[in-house]
Fold this sequence. Notes:
4-stranded antiparallel beta sheet; 10 strands; single chain
Amino acid sequence: xxxxxxxxxxxYKTEKGSLLKVDKIDAEPGTAINIDKVLxxxxxxxxxxxxxxxxxxxxxxxxxxxxxxxxxVFKYKPKKDYRRKQGHRQQYSxxxxxxxxA
Length: 102
């Protein structure tokens, strides 16, 4: 059984027991979360929402927080002596999917 959910403006495919890497959540590790924006649930039959399924929810637990590897943002215009270098490390949270109820 799996579900498609919308969480913090992005869509994810979830299964029971799977780990998701999402944008940073302001919650301590071990905190329970409920995701109410369920777009699709597939089990014995497929339920599709328009846009969301009423009464469906996915429960999850925050496992940990971290930072991705650094990316370099480099802007350059040839022959104009224009160079800008900037780095960025995106913060993320790992959540573990518990129960999917439709």
